[in-house]
Design a protein that fits this description.
Layout: H1 2-31, E1 35-44, H2 49-70, E2 75-83, E3 93-100, H3 112-119, H4 122-128, H5 131-134, E4 135-150, E5 160-168, H6 173-193, E6 199-207, E7 217-223, H7 226-230, H8 238-241, H9 247-255, E8 258-272
Antiparallel strand pairs: 1-3, 1-4, 2-3, 2-8, 4-6, 5-7, 5-8, 6-7
């Protein structure tokens, strides 16, 4: 009997040790509440625009709805790039997958075949098979959402947003983040509160990494109305939000940490949330 109890005790201790070893990883996975955007940049020929939109709205949206239901994603959005545009544009549509936690990124495309069988008809699958003739993914990026502001009555994504791509000055990353979060964010908050915009997001590029990147950060300025985009002069808020700081001081703090290398205006096409 002693050997039986001894073996059971040894087994219990072994299981406990293994559980304690694995616990930190489990807790880290549970604690990762960071929000990420996985963005696909798509090139669609003008003659294929109707086919592309039908494919996205009638077929892929069903797949994204099922992914949301299963907890694989936190949301899906499709945007048309209004400006810049033309035959030389690298892409004219962008697709966002929103996820919570780094590990969730891997799961975006896992199990797709099972989802296809569950929610798509034979006609849907046949239409999906034509995707290579309709669209081309020119690149894919992973962005970490560092900070954000949304209007109080948030119901759906804003109709428009300006995507601003930033080249952060070497050695100034922390200064740049501090500038955006403590100097500029309060201005965006007041602008959102007064109805001038629908929100704002600050993002850091996680992948691809490396010195060859043209930009390392981005801000998205959201608007419900086209007219708000052209009326988004924030300088009127400088003295109100930061009394005692001159417009020149604020401008120098902004431009001293980054260069705005490109801006795009994007329009919402469809979404799942």
């Amino acid at each position: 009997m002693k050997n039986v109890y001894g073996n059971r005790f040894f087994a219990f201790v072994l299981i406990l040790v293994i559980a304690l070893i694995m616990l930190p990883d489990h807790l880290n996975a549970q604690a990762d509440k960071r929000q990420f955007l996985v963005i696909e940049y798509l090139k669609v020929k003008p003659t294929m625009r109707g086919s592309f939109l039908k494919l996205q709205k009638d077929v892929w949206k069903k797949v994204e709805q099922e992914k949301l239901k299963q907890g694989k994603i936190d949301g899906w959005e499709l945007y048309e790039v209004l400006y810049p545009a033309g035959t030389t544009a690298e892409y004219n549509y962008v697709m966002y997958h929103r996820v919570v936690g780094w590990n969730a990124i891997e799961g975006i495309s896992e199990g797709n075949d099972d989802i296809f069988r569950k929610v798509l008809s034979k006609e849907d699958l046949a239409l999906m098979g034509k995707s290579p003739d309709v669209e081309e993914m020119t690149k894919k990026e992973i962005w970490l959402i560092e900070d954000k502001i949304s209007r109080a009555a948030y119901v759906a994504p804003a109709k428009y947003h300006a995507a601003n791509f930033m080249d952060v000055t070497d050695g100034k990353w922390d200064d740049y983040m501090e500038m955006e979060k403590t100097l500029v964010k309060p201005i965006h908050e007041e602008h959102t509160r007064t109805g001038g915009r629908a929100g704002w997001t600050l993002l850091a590029l996680r992948e691809p990494d490396g010195s060859a990147r043209a930009y390392q950060a981005a801000t998205f300025d959201f608007f419900d109305r086209w007219s708000d985009i052209g009326a988004s002069d924030l300088s009127d808020y400088y003295s109100q939000i930061h009394p005692g700081k001159s417009p020149e001081y604020i401008t120098n703090k902004i431009t001293g940490t980054r260069s705005l290398i490109r801006q795009e205006i994007r329009k919402l096409v469809d979404y799942v949330q």
